[in-house]
Design brief:
By secondary structure, this protein is an all-alpha fold. The chain is built from three helices and no strands. The longest helix has about 30 residues.
């Protein structure tokens, strides 16, 4: 039996890697993948606590988070592809569509 703290440490490390990736990287696709990594880290924490507390609440939250993440992936990738077609880059420093 693996202790609860190991899962939480892994979840924290995954979330930290994702947060650092969002802050440091400039490629929109890599930032997008880091956000997904952060969502999966939260899912791992929810499942860990649900298992520890013998409750289904955490797993229900994970189900909804995965649904939102799938919708986010579809819409986000469509937006990234549309921006790439207009600007020929996915570097967030070069994308200034909202500026006058």
């Amino acid at each position: 039996m693996i202790p609860l703290t190991w899962y939480l440490i892994l979840s924290g490390m995954l979330f930290t890697i994702g947060a650092v990736g969002v802050l440091i990287r400039r490629n929109a696709i890599v930032i997008f993948m880091c956000i997904e990594l952060m969502l999966n880290a939260v899912n791992l924490a929810f499942v860990t606590f649900a298992r520890q507390l013998n409750s289904m609440d955490g797993q229900i939250f994970v189900f909804f988070i995965m649904t939102v993440a799938a919708a986010e992936a579809a819409v986000g990738l469509a937006i990234i592809i549309a921006i790439y077609r207009n600007k020929a880059t996915v570097n967030v420093d070069n994308i200034n569509l909202m500026k006058w």
